[in-house]
Every structure is written in C-alpha cells, then in structure tokens.
Write a structure and sequence with these properties.
The chain has 163 residues and is an alpha+beta fold. The chain has a single domain (8-122), classed as Endonuclease, Chain A (3-Layer(aba) Sandwich). It is 37% helix and 25% strand. It is built from 5 helices and 6 strands. It has helices at 8-19, 23-32, 74-89, 99-104, 106-122, and strands at residues 43-48, 51-56, 62-67, 93-98, 141-147, 153-162. Strands 1-2-3-4 form a 4-stranded mixed beta sheet, sandwiched between helices. It is globular and about 35 Å long.
Length: 163
C-alpha cells in the first residue's frame, strides 16, 4: 500500500501518542500486535489523512478507537462522528470501545475486532471497471469467430475479448 505524505508535525504527534498510550491502549496493543489476531498486522497510532488512528490493520481496513472520559462530552462526540465518517469514506470500518470496556472485557473486545477484520478480509475488493470504450489501449483485441447451429462460421459475427 503506498504511503500518503505525512507532515513532520503530524508524524511527531503520532509518535508522542505512541509513547504516552493509556493503560487500556497498552493492554490492547499487547494483545493484537505481532499478528496475534488471525495473522493480521495491526499498527498503533497511525497518521491517516488529518487524523491519527489508535489502531489500524490496512489489509482488512478496521480502525479501532479507544475512548476515555473526554469522549463523554457532546462536542467530542460530534468530532468523533466527523472523524468516523471520514474513515468510512476512505473504506475503513470504525470500531469504538471505551477504555473501561478494554480493561474489563478484553476478550470480548478482541472477539469483535477479530470478527470484523475476518469478515472484511473475506470480502472481495471492489474493482473499478473502465468506462465504456475506455480501458487500457495497449491491450490487444482477440477476435473469436462464433460457430452457428450448422457448425459453419456464423458470418461476420465476432466476439471481442480483452486478452
């Protein structure tokens, strides 16, 4: 996956967040690092766009966010909703848990992360098809003659296939 340009300031902020993780984030990180969930690779405190995601697995695209008490305020919830909408617009599924949930129900939290990641990994990627008449002009066309019911070539009918 190509890396998007990240400013030094944004990268520094992510590094500071990694160094000052809460007890809940540290506990969850110890559990999900090193491919412990279905051999998936998670990263912590990752700059994505204008945000820093607590945890992300780029291959299955879940973003895991842990919320402390500051997320109880309405203004913070509204910011979280905008942030979640942006992540979703980029193809990520956002999973939010409270610090308390991680500390008290770690196995349940990990189960939800595992189920979400496995379900998303099993989904085939959406492929964007070229517009009609578009596509790569360097591809050559192969003509195949169709055979009519009598076994003879069916005149000028050809099927066009991209090789």
């Amino acid at each position: 996956m190509p890396h998007a340009a990240v400013s030094k300031q944004h990268r520094g902020r992510a590094k500071a967040l990694r160094q000052g993780m809460t007890r809940a984030k540290t506990l969850l990180w110890r559990y999900i690092k090193a491919h412990r969930i279905e051999r998936l690779s998670f990263r912590r405190q990752v700059p994505i766009g204008n945000y820093v995601a607590d945890f992300v697995c780029h291959s299955a695209r879940p973003v895991v966010e842990l919320d402390g008490e500051s997320h109880d305020f309405e203004s913070r919830r509204q910011m979280d909703q905008r942030r979640d909408a942006w992540f979703q617009s980029q193809g990520y599924a956002v999973l939010r848990f409270t610090n308390d949930q991680v500390l008290r129900e770690l196995e349940g939290v990990v189960h939800v992360i595992r189920e979400t990641a496995c379900a998303r990994r099993a989904q085939p990627p959406s492929l964007s098809l070229p517009h009609k008449g578009g596509g790569n002009s360097s591809k050559r066309r192969v003509r195949r003659r169709t055979v009519g019911a009598t076994g003879s070539p069916a005149g000028s009918r050809y099927k066009h296939h991209h090789a």
